[in-house]
Amino acid sequence: MAALLARKILSCSTPGGISLRSYQIVCFLFPYLLSNGNGRLKPCGFCSVASRRSSDTARHLFEEFSKPQNLRNEEELRCIGKILTPEAVEDVLKGLKGWRRAHEFFVWSSRQERYKHNCYTYNAMACILSRAQRADPLKSLAKEVVEKRCYMTPGALGFLIRCLGDQGLVEEANFLVDNAEIMGCFPNSYTYNCLLEGLARTGRVDLVESRLADMLVLGMRIDKFTMTPVLKAYCNSGKFDRALGVFEEILRKGWADEHVFTLLLVSLSKGGEVEKAWELLERMERRSMNLNEKTFCILTHGLIKEGDFSRALALFGKMKESGFKGDLALYSALISKLCEERELDKALQFYSEMKENEILPDASLVSKMISSLCGAGDFIAARRILEVDGEGVGLGSLVLLYNGVLQGLVNHGLVESAHSLVYLMMGNCKETAEVPQNQFSFKRMVQPNADSFCIVVCGLCKAEKLETAQKLVDNMSASGYKGNLLMYNDLISALCSVHRLQESVDLLEKFPELGLEPSQFTHNSIFGCLCDMEDAQGAADFLKIMRKHGHAPWIKHCTLLVKKLCKVGNSQDACKFLDEMIEVGFVPDMITYTALINGLCHERDVDRALEVFRTVSSEWYLPDVVAHNIIISGFCNAGRLEEAQEILKEMVDKGLLPSVVTSNVMMNAWCKHGNLDLALRSFSEIDNDELRSPTVVSFTILIHGLLCANKPNDALAYWTKMREKGCSPNRISYSALIHGLCSCGMPDAALAYFDEMDGEGIEPDVSIFIIFLHSLALKGKSVEAFRILHKMIQKFEFSSPVGKNYERLRDSLRELYRDMHTSSDLVRLIEEGRIPVFHSVDMIVGQTS
After folding, report:
1. Is this model's pTM higher than 0.90 or not?
2. Phi then psi for 791, rounded to 5 degrees?
3. Overall domain count for the chain
4. pLDDT digits over 481-514, tens only?
5. Three-point CA angle 391, 392, 393, nearest 5°
6. How far apart are CA 466 and CA 498, in angstroms?
7. Does residue 305 lie in a domain region?
C-alpha cells in the first residue's frame, strides 16, 4: 500500500520529484497526525531498574571481562551465564572500556543458555559500535536483530536506525524498517524521522521520497523533524530546486529557524549556487537571521554546547574567512573547550590570535589558560601569560589569576606547592618553603579569596592530608578570611570518611558564625558517618536537625545502618531507629524496610518481621517480590510452612508473580520436611512456565531432597534432565549428588560422578572427600578409598581436627588400617606426617598417644 501511494504521489509530481501540492497535502494532515514521540530514548539510555541480584551479576561479569581472557574464571562465568539477564548485560556493556571487549562480552552473553538479548542490549552494543565507527559488526548486529525476531519498540528501533545512519549504513537501516513487523514493531513518526536523517546524510533522495510517501499512507505526523532531513537530502544530492521547494514549505509552516537557513545556505554555497545563496542571505536579514558575525557566533556557541566541537571549529574558520574577527565570549568558549580537551597548543594559538585582533582577554580567561597550562606541567607558558597579562590588572582580577595557578598546581599533583602559595598570599612567610619559585616570580601579591582556600583545601582533602587542611582552615579563620560552603563540605566529608565525627560536628556548629547555611550534602555526610559507626541513637537525633533545615536523609545511609545493626544482632535497635525516623517525619524506603525484615528473619524473629511486613504493606508501600521472598524464607527456616504458603498466596493475590527464587525457597523447605510431593509440584510449575525456568539451584534442591528420601533413581533422573535443560551442575550440585549417593549406599555411582566432577575442573571441598572416603571404606572398597585419601591429602592440609567430619575420617582410616591391601601405605602416610590430624596409628585404632 505504501509503495502504491508513493507511485501515485510521484506520478502527479513535477519531473524532479514530489510536487508542491503533495507537500501541501502532507502539511494539511500534520495537525491531525501529531503523536507523542513514543519510544524516544534518553542519552546513554536503555535503562531499567535492575534488581540487586542483577547488579551483583553485572559487577562480577564486569570484573571478569575487564581481565585478559586467559585470566578469567571460566567456571564462574559458566555459573553466571545461567542467571544472566538483559539488565546485567546492559550494565556491563556501559562499563567496559573499548569496543572490542564490549563486543566480545556481547557475543559471549548471546551464547548462554536461556538468555536472549532484548532491544536495549542490542541498542547498547549498537551505540558502542557506532561511536567506535565499526561498520562491519554493526551490520551483523542489525541483521541479527531481525533474524532473532527481537521485540522492538518504535523508539528503540529509531535509536538503532540512528546508530546505523551515523555510520552511513542506510541499507541496513532501511532493511530494519521493512522488517519491523517481524519484530512486533509498528514504526511511528520518530522511527521514520530517524531513518530519514540517515538517508539524508547519504543523499538517497529516492529512498527519502519513498519513505515520506509511506508516512503519508500510514497517517503519521509530519513536522520539521521530518522535513528537515528531506531538505538535507536534496541539498546533499545537489538538487537545489527541490531543496528550495521544500524550504518554502517549511517556511510557510513556520518551522524555519537558523539551522534550516544555515543548512540550505551552506549547501548552496558549497554547490556553487552563489546567486541563490545571496537571495537566501537577504531573506535571513529580513527575518533578523542574516548570517553576520553575531549569527556566526550564536551558531558556533550552539555547536559547542551540543558537543559538536569539530563543526564549531569549522564554522569558526568560515567566519574568519568571511572577514569577521569574533568577540571575547566566542574566543573564551573555544579556548575553554580546547583546554578541557587538553589541546593546549591550539588553545595558545587562538589566545595569541585573539590578542592580535585586539580582543583583550578578561581575568577569567587568563585564569583558565594559566590553570590548564599548570595542570599540564607547562609552567613556562603559564608564567609568561601571568607576567604579561597580569601586569596591569587590578587586585580583584589578580586574585583570579593566582587562583588559576593554585588550581593548576593541584591538578598537576603539586598540592603542597599550592598550599605554600596560598600562605604566601596570606603574608605568612613561615609556610612558603615549597613555593615553586623556579617556575613563577610573583612581583605582586594579593590576598586570597574564598575560592583560593577552597581550591587548596579540597586538593589537600583529595590527597588525604586532613591535618594540613584543618590547620589551613584554622589559620584562615584566625587571619580573618572566610571560606565557602564547598570547602567546608569537602573537609567535613573527608573527616567523616575516616570517622572523625566530632571534628565534623564542630565545623558544622561554626556555620552560623561563618554566615553559612548547611546543604543536604553537609548533613548527609555527618548522618552517613553516624550510620557507618552504628550509632543508631545519634543518627536518629541528627535527623531532627536535618528536618529543621528541610534536608532528607539519603536512603543508602539508612539502609547501611539497618544492615549493620541486624548483622550484629541488634535488630530491635534497627526497628527503633526506623520508628524514630517516622516520628521525625521521614518514611524509610522499601529497600531499608527489606533490610530490616531480612535481619529479623536471620534472628528467627519471624513474628516481628511479619509485623513490620504487614505495617509497611498497610501504611506505606506494596512490598516487592524480594521482600516477599525474604519473609517466606524466614517462615520456612522457622519450620512454619503453612504460614509461608499463606504469604505466597497473598503475594499472588496482590498481582505479584513469584520468581524462581520464591519457588526454590518453598521447594527447599518442603524437601527438608519430607513433603516431596509438594516440592515436585512446585518444580513442575516453574518447569512448565514460559516466564520462569528452573535453575541449577532448583534442580540441586530437588535432587538433594530425593536423595535424602532414599530415592536415588529419581534423583539421577532429574540430574539427567538438568543436563538436558542446559543447566550445567556446579560444585554444590555435585556435592549434593555425591553425598546423597554415598548416604544411599551407592559409592560406585558416586565415584563416577566424582571423577566427572574432577574432569570438568570443579574442585570438591574437604567434606566431600571425607564423606566419599567414608562411604567407600565402609563398603570394603579400600583400594578406591585409599585413592580418594591420596587425592585429598594432595589438595588439603589437616593441621587441626576437621570439625564434625573428624569422627567420620577416623572411622574411614580405621577401615583402611584393618585392610592388608592399604594398611602399610596408610601407616607410611601417617609416619611421614601427611595426615597431621592423626600423628600416630594409635589415634586411629582408639588408643591415646
Report:
1. no
2. -65, -40
3. 1
4. 888 999 999 999 999 999 999 999 999 999 998 8
5. 105
6. 10
7. no
